Fold DNA-directed RNA polymerase subunit omega.
Amino acid sequence: MIHPSYVDLMNVVNKGVEEGEEPVISSRYSIVMATAKRARQLVAGDEAMINADPKDKPLSTAVKELYADKLAILTDEEKEAMAQLIEQKNAEEGGQKAAAALDEAVNETEESEEE
């Protein structure tokens, strides 16, 4: 028997869902897709979110991360909200960088006028 089982993993992912609400995942396919995606991230160089045995394969590490509740599976609405937050943060940072560049340009202009 594989440990943790699909049922165990689905219970971990759906643990915050209230009774009567739709679960985050309801199929083994979702577990397979999420862990496969995370395994590809690990292969690409992302660091593990748990203390994994270096001998473990990336998929084993991904399953352990999911079981340890270190990996989240987002609903479409959560993905959209996260994308909007990231976009907003990037816009704010871009605005701050532009303001800093403008301040620097003004300071340089004032210094050159004083000379």
